[in-house]
Amino acid sequence: MDIILGQALFLLCCCFILSCFLIFTTTRSRQTSRKATALPPGPPRLPIIGNIHLVGKHPHRSFAELSKTYGPVMSLKLGSLNTVVISSPQAAREVLRTHDQILSGRSPTNSIRSINHQDASLVWLPASSARWRLYRRLSVTQLFSPQRLEATKAMRANKVKELVSFISESSDREESVDISRASFITTLNIISNILFSADLGSYNTKDSINGVQDTVISVMEVVGKPDAANYFPLLRFLDLQGNRKTMKVCIERLFRVFRGFIDAKIAEKSSQSNPKDVSKNDFVDNLLNYKGDEAEINISDIEHLVLDMFTAGSDTSSSTLEWAMAELLRNPKTMVKAQAEIDRVIGQNGIVEDSDISELPYLQAVVKETFRLHPGAPFLVPRKAESDVEILGFMVLKDTQVLVNVWGIGRDPSVWENPTRFEPERFLGKEIDLRGRDYEFTPFGAGRRICPGLPLAVKTVSLMLASLLYSFDWKLPNGLVSEDLDMDETFGITLHKTNPLHAVPVKKRVIN
């Protein structure tokens, strides 16, 4: 009897312990599930418009401020568009590395859809598509590989010499230079020569080919303009802001220019009895000669791919140079320090060359500090979740737009000391670079969507900046002092100075 009673008590104890274990594990599982499926916090929403009223003229600033309250993974409702804003290096790492594949989708804007650019664009195609992989490989191997950059080194140097010559003439006349316009023409011509072996811009506005430089600027402006249809897709057919119409007009104008060069190359190819020297091919030559197993490339594909290169390359590089010059003019001691380093390395009667940049660590730090404070694309290009995914314990739902606020991360006081000051010294002796491995500093993005033009952009900006500082001293016009220099910015797909920078060059040495 005692044995039976003991066995019963033993079984009862086992059942009690097992029940407690099951209750504990079930409760723990539910808590974990609730934690994992919690949506990111965010500000209260208004009916219909959601949080659109909180965006303002400077969304990168508004969202950085809101993230102080709602955290580094913040949820917003912009009309019908679910949006998550990322505002810390840890959260950026989750998006750009850990869940890069899931978060590599795109949400094309209304203006992009108006020209069907999302179906033939390296920027807007899904990263999972075979065509995107083909475009990516072609851009890396035929445009931005070390071998291609070396092959175009002399051409880039000549374009920068033309910039210096133009500024020298302005110096002789004691006239100020529009830094934004001059640097834009230089970068436009560098890119057009890589693509077509021809200049498309001119420092003399009367000589500009079919107004290409103005049209490229207009395209960048319309892509960055607010558009109600991006938040309320039902309004697309109304084109309330006129963005679709403007975009179509600009693209048709650019495509006519592109088609002229393409047709000329096709005619030249058909008339040649001997094949052209491959080493002299430009990007469009290589595209026209392309034969691959994955997909065919037609003339329309080439036009759209060339459009990506023009819009992504010329505007961001010229804008970065303008911001760098503005910061140096606001910080004269920093400019003097950069000029002293260049003079020491180059000497008094030389020319700055590509190979010199590696010997100019302070200049490289100036460029990095400019990218930190003034990233070309403050939110990078918006990403889209291809499926539900967890980021730092919050669930980001499928089809949500994801914005990485690299502008906000670059000015976060918990990440950077004296974050609003222009201090290139913070990069000296440190391994922080631009190649998407340091998530507190990713102005070109990271992962599979990192900007493929990063090597060319950094080389172009560094060479232009070093050449301008080597050949000239600079001062502000009309007696303006550095403390009063206007640094207001206008938000778009890229961040521009609201008022273009004008500065007076003073020759330091004889310029041939």
Automatic annotation (TrEMBL):
Transmembrane segments: none annotated. Keywords: Heme, Iron, Metal-binding, Monooxygenase, Oxidoreductase. It holds the Pfam family p450. Belongs to the cytochrome P450 family. This is Cytochrome P450 76C1. It comes from Camelina sativa (False flax). The lineage of its organism: Eukaryota, Viridiplantae, Streptophyta, Embryophyta, Tracheophyta. The gene is LOC104784776.
